């Protein structure tokens, strides 16, 4: 299946931006866009996200299976599928490994509370800086299906989960209705995490 040029271009541009900000070292990170009810455009596994070309983006179905036989999507494809399945309004998903999200997630318990930051207004339902967002932190797991099951259990127990979470010592997942919104949320989140880190704040 060929990927719509606009979707591939949005993924390539997002990878360059994340790389410029130092959030996707080596071949870290993965990026996707929802194409339709049973189609997702996602980065191929093992590509450097700052040097993507349109051909580094491929299609999978809603269960994460490659449409093109033999093609190898991101190792973490099931996490993207889990987000699109759970949140019908999600149109783009970003995953990065920044220093701030890695260090803070290693120190944190099961959540990091972000409160009092002006940039919280970038998150849905956060019209003022007085809102607090509890960003979930899950233990890392190389069994991605098991990690997604832990996320599903968490989301089942959380009335309105924020559009992002951390994986301990690994990275962040953030989503939005489209790529621009997902990137704005990622930038806001990384900014607040960096503030948190600089201040040496307690986690909750
Ligand atoms: C460079 S190691 C990082 C990977 O293990 C993984 O966490 C990651 O983010 C990228 O995996 P990928 O399969 O390229 O999408
Ligand atoms: Zn990763």
UniProtKB/TrEMBL annotation:
This is Methylthioribulose-1-phosphate dehydratase. It catalyses: 5-(methylsulfanyl)-D-ribulose 1-phosphate = 5-methylsulfanyl-2,3-dioxopentyl phosphate + H2O. The gene is mtnB. It comes from the Bacteria. Pathway: Amino-acid biosynthesis; L-methionine biosynthesis via salvage pathway; L-methionine from S-methyl-5-thio-alpha-D-ribose 1-phosphate: step 2/6. GO terms for cellular component: cytosol. The keyword Translocase does not apply. GO terms for biological process: L-methionine salvage from methylthioadenosine; pentose catabolic process. Catalyzes the dehydration of methylthioribulose-1-phosphate (MTRu-1-P) into 2,3-diketo-5-methylthiopentyl-1-phosphate (DK-MTP-1-P). Pfam families: Aldolase_II (PF00596). InterPro entries: Aldolase_class_II_sugar_metab (IPR050197), Aldolase_II/adducin_N (IPR001303), Aldolase_II/adducin_N_sf (IPR036409), MethylthioRu-1-P_deHdtase_MtnB (IPR017714). Its cofactor is Zn(2+). GO terms for molecular function: aldehyde-lyase activity; methylthioribulose 1-phosphate dehydratase activity; zinc ion binding. Belongs to the aldolase class II family. MtnB subfamily.
């Amino acid at each position: 299946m060929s990927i719509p040029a606009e979707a591939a271009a949005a993924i390539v541009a997002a990878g360059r931006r994340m790389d410029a900000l130092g959030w996707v070292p080596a071949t870290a990170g993965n990026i996707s866009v929802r194409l339709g009810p049973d189609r997702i455009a996602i980065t191929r596994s093992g590509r450097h996200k700052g040097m993507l070309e349109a051909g580094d983006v491929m299609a999978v179905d809603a269960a994460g299976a490659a449409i093109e036989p033999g093609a190898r999507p991101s190792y973490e494809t099931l996490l993207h599928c889990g987000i699109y399945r759970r949140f019908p309004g999600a149109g783009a998903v970003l995953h990065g490994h920044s220093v701030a999200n890695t260090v803070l997630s290693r120190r944190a318990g099961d959540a990091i509370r972000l409160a009092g930051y002006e940039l919280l207004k970038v998150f849905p339902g956060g019209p003022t800086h007085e809102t607090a967002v509890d960003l979930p932190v899950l233990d890392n797991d190389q069994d991605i299906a098991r990690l997604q099951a832990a996320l599903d259990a968490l989301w089942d127990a959380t009335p309105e989960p924020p559009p992002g979470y951390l994986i301990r010592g690994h990275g962040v997942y953030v989503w939005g209705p489209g790529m621009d919104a997902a990137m704005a949320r990622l930038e806001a989140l990384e900014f607040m995490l960096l503030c948190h880190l600089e201040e040496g704040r307690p986690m909750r």
